[in-house]
Design brief:
Length: 800
Amino acid sequence: MDFRERLKSGILYLDGGTGSILQSLGLKPGELPEKWNIERADDIVSVAKKYYEAGSNVVYTNTFGANCLKYDGKDGRYTVEEVVVAAVNNTRKASLEAAGDKSDRFVALDIGPIGKMLEPLGDLAFEDAVSIFAETVRAGVKAGADLIAIETMNDSYETKAAVLAAKENSDLPIIVTNVYDENCKLMTGACPESMAAMLEGLSVDAIGANCSLGPKQMIPVAKRLHAALSVPLIMKPNAGMPKSVDGKTVYDVLPEEFSEIMMELQDIGVRVFGGCCGTTPDYIKATVEKTKSRELKPVVEKEHSVISSSQEAVYFDKIPILIGERINPTGKKLFKEALRNHDIGYVLNEGIKQKENGAHVLDVNVGLPEIDEPALLKECVEELQSVISLPLQIDTTDIEAMEGALRVYNGKPMVNSVNGKEEVMNAVFPLVKKYGGFVVCLTLDEDGIPDNADKRIEIAKNIIKKAAEYGIKKKDLIFDPLAMAISSDTNAALATLESVKRLTNELNVKSSLGVSNVSFGLPNRDFITSTFFTMAMDNGLSGAIMNPFSFEMMKAYHAFLALKGLDENCTGYISFAGDITLGETVSKTVSQSSGDTPDGLKGAIVKGLKEEAAALAAKELETIDGLTLINEQIVPALDIVGVGFEKKTMFLPQLLMSAEAAKGAFDEVKKKIPQGSGNKASVILATVKGDIHDIGKNIVKVILENYGYNVIDLGKDVEPEIIVNEAIDKNITLVGLSALMTTTVPAMEETIKLLHEKKPDCKVVVGGAVLTQEYADMIKADKYAKNAMETVRYAEELLV
């Protein structure tokens, strides 16, 4: 039985932790564990055998960090292929030698994060990440792995890069587990629903969570994932929370308690069980004994029509979804000029203003005959998704442009569009199957646009049938029955409204309209358009491409929701209409700025608009001095974002993009003031010996620098003595240390001990995925920072 069939057949057990076991076998602080595949193969085989004998059906290869950044074959280092082939062979050997049923065992090629942030939050290009993962995948395929396990991913974009590498370089099953925090968020802000949407769109075979949390803390994540997923759910928790005892990392949940909580997860709907940091074969054995004979919840197909961004999931359900139409050159002279001038800032502002005015999704169309549409659409998608959390609708008839945008999109987008023409369906549906998407389907075909509902429904049925041939489900299609101008056909609106109703009631599919077309050629078009919009919603319309700046359209929308019982306590309507005075003109335009977001330079920084922030700073510096600008505008703007980050109303992408915008403003200030003026104290940052994952350190660096601190970045995999000597030489009073892996925390403890001994006035702040307050206390850190802003706050207390 192959893995996909086995996955469908019942409960499945993965392995547990590896790093902590290797530490107990003598893995030294900072030593690369993947080297043991070659240098201590018998130990790796022994660990894998114990997991198989404990009941694991799937054991991960010892390749968590096996990528070409570590293993490049230079200067005596192993190649990726050497490490991966040895790892797969070791695990396969264990599966054959371990006692018990050998027929129900699989070898999973383990792929962990690269250790770098992807652009625009970091310096690693998306395609470079795909290439790095691809090299590991090809080696695993060559060695004979049964499946690919992508794990411990805390960034949705890196997760997508890994999945694409797996899909493009193998036909092996793919399972994915991400790292969620106690607020059910990834480090970069994704929620369980957005990850479920993206990963199911990419046709991943099983999805779940691992690491960071103990089994009890994973229950909320499991509930939300189970409600969203139509594939098997995986949970691979830590053995509780880590602490240091006599220099060793130990965890606070023992096998008996662990297995009891795994039964609770089973009751939620988990079907694939394993363990992560701190777990051993004893944990797996206890879990197998407790869960193997209990009734499993079946995997149920969820009929969710959903799209996602890197942070949000938007469901097309009872409440109609508003798709902002303003990022489109059709009929917009200024927008056309912006595209010709490559004014990306104008595009971003159009997106931000639409979000602030209530759009749930943004249509993105940059099609002009004289521009390079594939290049510009890809760039606009990348830029928009870096500053706006809304999902995007990729709107193009250019197949090359469509694929380029789909590839780099961080989530599951709307795809606008396909129609009933065979040629179009055969071009678009393969892209949607590969990258995922929610497809807008126009009810026209080779004979044009029908003038009646019967023919439009017939075309819709043909599209559904064709999509199914490509493995695209009906829930991932949304039909546009085409609003036509009543100025040329007085019955046009009636045919469209009947089509909307029949799509909803007969075909049980979602529907969308470009509603403004209905009023073409008429005066005061919003009167007609808004009334038609209300009628369409009452007939079951699921979404509309519309202008969120139109007062009449937003009035119709909020009034409809209130009257249909879709606006609890009428809060949405009150928020919209509460400040409107009777007698105000019906041509009123909805405000294009949010009351919660400042204007000017502060607003540009809060929104993450780097070029605009730089331009505004340069203008401000014509009338005020640089230090005043820093203290009265730049730092207060960063504080707004920082407070939002701490309150969980803003997430890491906004924090970093705002920091980049602030840097643009700072660069203008530096041109006006002497170097070093206004700088605060110096701070050392380093990732500890043996750890090459510097994402957290780099985030802290960016934020500290934007608050005016001079950061001495010693890099990653740094010896304790180097950190101490630098602190003494530069007379540093604050050092920040980062570690992602449990195997490198002893190196952190060693560094802290040496710093306190050699430079007792120096304080040490620590952070990283494996750390907790208790753990930090155990290793004698002066401060534990859960995130970058906590480090800034500590620096402000200590150094100012």
